């Protein structure tokens, strides 16, 4: 049991926008069980951490990342997505476990230093004969104390079969499915509060066959794990899907059964009203990657329209990736990830639930207020530091459970 005591302010992110001056946070068994002022109502004496001068916010959650790309920043500066990929695929074909470990150490440290306590990673390049890639990043995440939800990604559609990647960086379907199933059985921990879970992540419509998409979907649902892929990122991708499949990207995913509450999609830049209704009706989540999309000139996802879309099961879940992530986004400087909208602060029963747009605006306003106070000389000369939830501890959700 750990008590973070006497923080300059505790930002609860509850529906009322509560900020507690001189507040404290009690972490019990890795879960935030109490916030308030003064001493917590517990008999056991907790280990006390001095919070004076700190601003405590919920740990941030990064919903899309390619850690291995950390070591190939600043390539193809003038190219869009397809040109960027064509230049980098040959370099990525040389990846090994040492590369992956180094990239994970840098990328995960950047995330931790920016206040991120939970992250995913979408690793889909597995050159023939190279082992230990997923294992390397999992080990680094454990050493750094981040909650980790990596995707065992895949590509099976090389250039000789009409795909974009060169044949030497793709795998055959049977090997992919066997390796993915083995990763789930070895590493996935479904328990509440788990620090590690595995998702299934076929890469994209231009690097994965329809058969692999269908069989990956079946595997994930048989093993009760989540699904992730890139979709609707660029107009080139949309043109490819129309030419190859005679369908738009989201129509393709719907036909493949790759939508639902167990799915989150990266990008969704080029979606129309029908696509957004499709996402909402299936409760499919979207990871927004604005820095990556701006870096590659891909466009800008219609976030507001997605959040506002009414549906029987609610608007699609919408989250923001970290400033260093996304396709091409590893060229961007570290930023601040926004929290998964499903993760709130300690619940306050009976309060009206805020829409996600208002919550994001409130968080930005908070940052501006604190920055202004620091410039006026309040507190220490350096201004307040931001403190993430310790050791990956996440804010409570309804029912006091948590997980990646």
Give a verbal description of the structure.
- The structure is a single chain.
- With 404 residues, this protein is α/β, with parallel strands linked by helices.
- The protein has 2 domains: 2-58 and 343-392, Urease, subunit C, domain 1 (Roll); 60-331, TIM Barrel, CATH 3.20.20.
- 32% of the residues lie in helices and 19% in strands.
- The strands form 3 sheets. Strands 1, 2, 3, 4, 5 and 14 form a 6-stranded mixed β-sheet that branches. Strands 6-7-8-9 form a 4-stranded parallel β-sheet. The protein has a 4-stranded parallel β-sheet with strand order 10-11-12-13.
- A hairpin with a 7-residue loop joins β1 (2-11) and β2 (19-28).
- α4 runs parallel beside α5.
- Mean pLDDT is 82; it is low at 311-316, 320-357 and 377-404.
Largest sheet: 6 strands, mixed
Oligomer: single chain
User: Quick check: average pLDDT?
Assistant: 82
At CATH level 3, the topology of the largest domain is: TIM Barrel
Could you give a quick summary of the protein structure above?
This protein is α/β, with parallel strands linked by helices and 404 residues long. It has 11 helices and 14 strands. It has 2 domains: 2-58 and 343-392, Urease, subunit C, domain 1, CATH 2.30.40; 60-331, TIM Barrel (Alpha-Beta Barrel), CATH 3.20.20.140.
Which structural traits does this protein have?
2 domains, 404 residues, six-stranded mixed beta sheet, Urease, subunit C, domain 1, 14 strands, 11 helices, TIM Barrel, disordered C terminus, 32% helix, alpha/beta, four-stranded parallel beta sheet
């Amino acid at each position: 049991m750990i008590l973070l005591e006497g923080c300059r302010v505790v930002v609860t992110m509850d529906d009322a926008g509560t900020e507690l001056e001189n507040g404290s946070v009690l972490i019990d068994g890795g879960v935030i069980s109490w916030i308030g002022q003064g001493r917590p109502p517990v008999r056991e004496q907790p280990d006390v951490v001095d919070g004076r001068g700190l601003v405590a916010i919920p740990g941030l959650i990064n919903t899309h990342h390619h850690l291995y790309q950390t070591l190939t920043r600043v390539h193809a500066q003038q190219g869009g997505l397809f040109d960027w990929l064509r230049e980098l695929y040959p370099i990525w074909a040389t990846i090994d476990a040492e590369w992956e470990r180094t990239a994970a150490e840098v990328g995960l440290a950047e995330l931790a230093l920016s206040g991120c306590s939970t992250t995913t990673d979408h690793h889909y390049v597995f050159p023939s004969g190279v082992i230990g890639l997923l294992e390397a990043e999992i080990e680094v995440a454990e050493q750094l104390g981040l909650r980790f939800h990596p995707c065992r990604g895949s590509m099976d559609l090389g250039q000789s079969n009409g795909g974009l990647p060169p044949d030497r960086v793709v795998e055959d379907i049977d090997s992919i499915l066997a390796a993915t199933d083995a990763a789930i059985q070895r590493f996935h921990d479904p328990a509440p509060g788990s620090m590690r879970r595995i998702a299934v992540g076929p890469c994209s419509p231009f690097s994965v066959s329809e058969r692999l998409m269908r069989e990956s979907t079946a595997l994930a649902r048989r093993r009760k794990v989540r699904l992730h892929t890139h979709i609707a990122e660029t107009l080139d991708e949309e043109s490819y899907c129309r030419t190859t499949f005679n369908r738009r990207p989201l129509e393709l995913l719907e036909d493949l059964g790759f939508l639902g509450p167990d799915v989150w999609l990266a990008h969704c830049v080029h979606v129309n009203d029908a696509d957004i209704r499709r996402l909402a009706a299936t409760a499919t989540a979207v990871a927004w990657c604005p820095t990556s999309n701006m870096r590659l000139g891909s466009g800008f996802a219609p976030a507001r329209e997605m959040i506002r879309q009414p549906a029987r099961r609610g608007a699609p879940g919408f989250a923001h990736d970290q400033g260093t992530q996304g396709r091409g986004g590893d060229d961007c400087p570290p930023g601040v990830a926004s929290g998964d909208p499903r993760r709130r602060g300690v619940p306050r029963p009976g309060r009206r639930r805020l829409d996600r747009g208002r919550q994001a605006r409130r968080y930005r306003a908070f940052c501006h207020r604190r920055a202004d106070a620091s410039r006026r000389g309040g507190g220490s000369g350096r201004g307040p530091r931001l403190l993430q939830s310790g050791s990956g501890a996440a804010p409570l959700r309804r029912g006091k459970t948590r997980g990646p």
